Amino acid sequence: MTRAQLFEQIQKKQSFLCVGLDTDLNKIPAHLLDTEDPVFEFNKQIIDATKDLAVAYKPNIAFYEAMGAEGWVSLEKTINYIPKEIFTIADAKRGDIGNTSKLYARAFFEKMDFDSVTVAPYMGSDSVKPFLDFKEKWVILLGVTSNEGGKDFQFLQADGKPLYQHVMAKSKEWGTADNMMYVVGATRPEYLSDIRKTIPDHFLLVPGVGAQGGDLQEVCKYGMNAECGLLINSTRGIIYASNGEDFAEKAREEAKKLQGEMATLVQSI
């Protein structure tokens, strides 16, 4: 998917909502456990309920890997079910030496046809660039994460600036705003102004709105650019809004609330 196509979807749906599909067999409604593929059935109903509100879906690959071969089948069926005009994110957090990264890229971009994959930058350019060799595919590089351990390294000072700023400044040389995005946690919106000085044009994938306490208005105040430039991810607050037979209906209600807020913000661009 191109940048223009993504922005077109944002404008059309008046939304920059990304729904996380972190589907856990221990959390999905009990009545689905009797179906042939409970994980896919859950995802299918969530997608059906939210596809007119979301511009992206983000399965966290660990939830599928943990189930072995069956999990990969459920994931592939899920990706094939998502409408082609909706942006897909493999939240895999890969990043290894060049020849290994190339194989990871082939797995997610060629075999599974994801539009993007999350990548860890710690091993440097040769671990990231193989993902950038694929036309109309995206790298989403970990920038500032919202987990508690993110403070261990990301905010270490070097030459008067935190390490994450050095990572962003260097990594933006590897790709462009047309094939690279950055993860910036919603629970750290105060850093977005400085981040935008370094990467003014790139899209940011922002997890943490909803159950993790991130504030949508604050994120948009400091992070939005002329082409929106944001994909706001919500997972638990949407997909686990109910554990009953009305789970898809309740998921839609929560997604609609976020989309309603987003519509006003998109109109202001």
UniProtKB/TrEMBL annotation:
Transferase as UniProt keyword: no
SMART domains in UniProt: OMPdecase
Assigned EC number: 4.1.1.23
Pathway, per record: Pyrimidine metabolism; UMP biosynthesis via de novo pathway; UMP from orotate: step 2/2
GO MF, one example: orotidine-5'-phosphate decarboxylase activity
Domain Orotidine 5'-phosphate decarboxylase span(s) in chain numbering: 16-251
Keywords on record: Decarboxylase, Lyase, Pyrimidine biosynthesis
Record's catalysed reaction(s): orotidine 5'-phosphate + H(+) = UMP + CO2
Pfam families recorded: OMPdecase
InterPro entries to which the protein is assigned, alphabetical: Aldolase_TIM, OMPdecase_type-2, OMPdeCOase_dom, RibuloseP-bd_barrel
Catalytic site: 93 (proton donor)
Similarity comment: Belongs to the OMP decarboxylase family. Type 2 subfamily.
Name by which UniProt lists this protein: Orotidine 5'-phosphate decarboxylase
Gene of this entry: pyrF
